[in-house]
Design goal:
The protein contains two helices and seven strands; from the N terminus they run βββββββαα. With 134 residues, the chain is α+β, with helices and mostly antiparallel strands. It has one domain: Stage V sporulation protein G (Arylsulfatase, C-terminal domain), CATH 3.30.1120. A hairpin with a 6-residue loop joins β1 and β2. The longest helix is centred in the last third of the chain and has 35 residues. It is elongated. The relative contact order is 0.14.
Amino acid sequence: MGKVTIFARNSETDDLRPLSLEIRAYPVAEPKGSVAAFASVAIEGAFGVHGISVVNGKNGLFVSMPQSKDKNGEYHDVFHPVTSEGRKALNEAVLSEYAAARESLADKLREGAKAAAERPSPERTAKRKDEAEL
């Protein structure tokens, strides 16, 4: 889980204030389409947003906000940043957490493969038992 602070602009005073986000990214182990990961964001520890996707597009990775489909078949974002600064900060934070989660997953897979290689295979163990009985 990544914790980041972004700055939100107060529309009444035009001041910036810190806004804490907790981001979790869940890479898709074997993607069958363009979705590389799913993500969720907790805002100020009070609000949760689920259904964020990290998508592998023709110009690279991008963040897609959760959407719903209306009766005309058109999609609309359920949640989205209001300002371009907010969108940029959220996108960077989600993509950064995705990269960290993907690296962590790769480390775990490497550790598992190494552990499996160090264990004797069932065939070799059975062969040793047979040889010992001779």
